[in-house]
Amino acid sequence: MAAQTGLSAPALVSRSDVPAFRPVALSAEAPPFAPLGTDGWRLGSPSDAEKQFSRCAARLRALRADSGQLREELNLLFDQLLSENYNRAFEPNINVRPEVCSLLRHTSGLVPLSQEHLVVKLCQLVHHLLNQLKVIMDEKTLDVLVNYTAGALKACSLWTHSDVLLALSTIVYGNGPQCHQHLSHLLGEDGVLLMYSSPTQPNMELRRVALTCMANICLRMPGQPPLDDQYRSVSFSVFLKTLQSSKPPNTDELFYCMVVQAALKGLQCCLSGGKWKFGGAEELGSVLASLKRLMFQGAPGVNVEWPAVLYPAPLPQYEGLSAPKPAEAPKPSETQRDATGSGKNSGVIKDLIIIGICIKENDREAVPVLQKGGGRDEVQVEAESLSKFSAPSLYPSWKRTSSDSEFSDPEGSAQCKLRLYHGRVRQGALHCLLAVAKGVEKRTLYGYWSSFIPDSPPIGGPPPLTLLTIILKDPSPKVRACALQVLSAMLDGSRQFLAVAEDTASPRTSYTPFSFLLATAVRELHRALSLALLAETSPQTLTQVIKVRIHEFDDTESLCVLLLQPYVNVRVSVLTLYGALVTTQAPLPEVQLLLQQPEGSSSGGSFTPKDSALSWRQRDGVSSPSRTPLTPSPRGPRTPAEEASSPPWLLQLCVSLVTQPREDQSDSDGAGTGGGLALEPSPVRLEALQVMSHLVRGYFSRAQACLCEIGQVSARCLGETDPSIQLHGAKLLEELGTGIIQQYRAENNVPESSRVPMSQVVLFWSEVLSGPLNRALQNEQHPTLQTSACDTLSSILPQAFAQLPDKTQLMCITVLLGLTYSENYLVKTAAVRALGVYILFPCLREDVMFVADTANTILAALDDRSPNVRAKAAWSLGNLTDTLIVNMESVGVDFQEELSDMLLLKMLQAATRASADKDRVKSNAVRALGNLLHFLRQSQLSRAVFQRPLEDAVRALVKTVQSEATMKVRWNACYALGNCLHVFAWHSPVFVLATWSGDAFSSLCHVVTSCKNFKVRIKSAAALAVPSSRGCYGDMERFSCVWRSLATALENSEDTNDFLEYRYSASLRHTLSKALLHLLSVSQQQDMPALGASLDGEEGRAIKEHLIKYVRAEEGGEGEQGEKEAGGDTNVTCYSKPHIVYLGLTNLCLYNCIYLISP
């Protein structure tokens, strides 16, 4: 029941007493008019509503069931409460929620079910208060009100049930799981809701309210458990039957639309209320068929026979035409027009009409009006539209405003209302389809794609009715936006499915492969969305179109035109699409071709993206005064090599968006500059900077032509006051530095002629480091900017850093060392990581003072309370210890002697403590332990102060190997133990007698046989083969244990359930065979019985076969590749491979001879 305003007429006042009205702009969003009283207070203000509610509530609480004149009092109080407007959107300051629940509980006990008029008013009051105040009921109130309304449905007459059900639907809204004790009465076999919601129910109002009540029961609020599957299934069946049933005869179309809306809402709640399993493909097909039919409810020109069920099929199931109606004889002009447009050329004519309309589109808004035409599907209607309107709009004739009204005013109002309700039905159907697309498994939904996405353009006969039809032709922008959301959900996560598309099959073959059908569907999707980009006038819907194009990339011309739109969100979405385009599997040859637009292509009237990028700001041939092109661009033709080396037009466009002022200075979103010129709005500039970063990352070879210009853009951004612009400028610099480093890496094999010259790199960084980047590093007010600036410093090319001036190098090092003491953990993390990069620079790693300063800084960071700081500190410590190994091999003992023993001891102890931290800290800590144990000299190993730390370090490695840590942690731990065995075997004779040496071997033996990850097994097998002499393996029992473990691992080298691990089985066998031959080469006479027993029998024969294969592979030169795949390390190799093979085979022959002559 609508709220009624019960205000008495104000007393007459003189003109001087009337308060002055505040001028208010007229708009659709303006609040409703409310007159002012003589005291200047707004009548019906929050204070008045609260006073009225409090007064009525107090009188209701004072009433008792045996009070005299109870009926009259309740009737009066109910009328007064219903007359007030409690909507918080209208009166945000109203505050009566706490009293509502207790008031309704008390009032329900005052109204007996025999007083049906009072029952109706109480139900109206319940709906009025709960609906407008959005009250969250407690369990007691919920139970009382549900009991009362359920009792009213049993005891009261039928005429009251509509209001009772309306109140019940408001009570159970989002509270379905809490009403489980009442659901059997409501949704049971003979439940009242099932009775009233049945398709045979003649009262459409009762049917609608019952369906709404069921939908509210199925609605699941965030954090709530889902409704019981039994009742959800019952409700789902009712909703589906309602959607499948036809409109009853003599039923008003508006009422039928309201019933369908309620059923669609309920179906959406069922599908979104938790995991839903359809009862086979038939049920899913029935749901999709009903939703597809309702997607076109009330659409002009759609009159087809819809299938009852959709089946998964690669080909679309075309809807059959309904029985044709007798047509009038066409006029001669129409006959001639039909003859002209018939045959195979009709589809081409349609497309030409569409494209012509799109090109001539104006920016005016289109008001949908129902006409008799069918839209773009009928060439005749379009031709008439083109001849009738002097400035045709983007939408078909039934989307346009016409001055020739075909209805009288009452009829027009009714038709507008019917169109509105039809649009709501289509919107609800698309919302349900969106829930299906999100809830059904992708591979199941792929079979139904052909019913919603066409596989060919409409040529000849009637086109299929699909989502693209709605996107291009529906008069409601909300419906078009919903269709785009559904299409986006279907495309999201379907990259593997769409990757099957292949447009290489011959069109004239008896067999059409599915890949070709999928390719035609993708092409049609591209064509339709390109038209939608040009045709759409609603900015919200246009944004949805662009978001869909992120999944299905667009041609660049339409997007450049869209950058002229005055709507910021549209331009941001276009740039987002450009970013998605240049980041997908970069570098793609197709994208490189799009970025390379010839200069001469703009001659002859053709349009290119570059023309749009460079000329869209110019008016009457005059560009902005401050506009300077990125590079000179003569209009003469260029050679392919010159065009390939020129900067991409998209990069020029983004530079223009970031740096150039807007022509339209009235845009309030523009950011003013010192010169008074307004730049682009901040979201547009930020997105343009992100696109530039994506371009530099994925297509650096194209962007390097304007390296210094991009650096100037970054420097300008760093010099602005907006922290977001500064941050993205620093990110762009980081991407430039990373691109240069990638070019100079040897493994990338970039020719010298294609690299950025070293002199230009040095000049670039000299200018950057002397500009605003230094200020950004010291900007303590914006820690995120400092963090990004530190990352930028770490992206300097090492060779270029060595050629920078000494003061510049010193500045970088000093700033980074100072920022490691920042209070912000983000800044500290970035600074520690940058030092970890610098420690690998050839010009810095031999500087003992820098190594010592970096080591002390890292040690301090390892004790930080932030796990992010500790993780980066451990990574930097691993890099530092890598540098120690490199210096030990290149510089020699001199470097080892210059480094302080106490510093090494502190690093060893810190790494040991870090090995007990989280996995992301532990993985680099054990790497550092292995390097440190390798770096220590004999004099240091023998010192008493090192003995306990050494033992703790080895035990930490053993514990890590035996733990259930991640693969990377255990791999590094096995590598570190290999280093440990190598060093101690050479330098420490007491190693064999140490108690923890047995733990080291046993842990490696356990991992090589039982670890599920083959890469960890490979590294543990390599570590077991590190000791260079027989004495390092200890007694016969330990040696036999190592042999048995390697033999067992070789036997089980193919036993895995993970195909990803099976890829490494060949490398694992290679490493295990090498380790077994190494054991044979160092074995002695006392080991023969154990080894001979292992080599005897079936298992021994398999081992010998693997060893022979390994020897043959070594002879064929295949062993080096196998060792590389296995992760072999030259630092732990003791004997050459020919030596190992020779000794191993000699001992193998010896064992065989001994066992041949043994008794």
Question: Would you mind describing this structure in some detail?
Answer:
The protein is an all-alpha fold. Among the domains are: 48-276 and 287-295, Leucine-rich Repeat Variant; 946-1115 and 1135-1158, Alpha Horseshoe (Leucine-rich Repeat Variant). It contains 56 helices and two strands. Strands 1-2 form a two-stranded antiparallel sheet. Helix 6 (161-171) packs parallel to helix 9, helix 32 (723-744) packs parallel to helix 35 and helix 43 (901-914) packs antiparallel against helix 44. It is elongated, with a radius of gyration of 39 Å. The termini are far apart.
Question: Summarize this, please?
Answer:
With 1159 residues, the protein is mainly α. It has 56 helices and two strands.
CATH superfamily of the domain at 48-276 and 287-295: Leucine-rich Repeat Variant
Separation, N- and C-terminal Cα atoms: 107 Å
Q: What does the average pLDDT come to?
A: 74
CATH architecture grouping of the domain at 48-276 and 287-295: Alpha Horseshoe
Descriptive labels:
Leucine-rich Repeat Variant, 1159 residues, disordered N terminus, disordered C terminus, two-stranded antiparallel sheet, elongated, mainly alpha, 56 helices, single chain
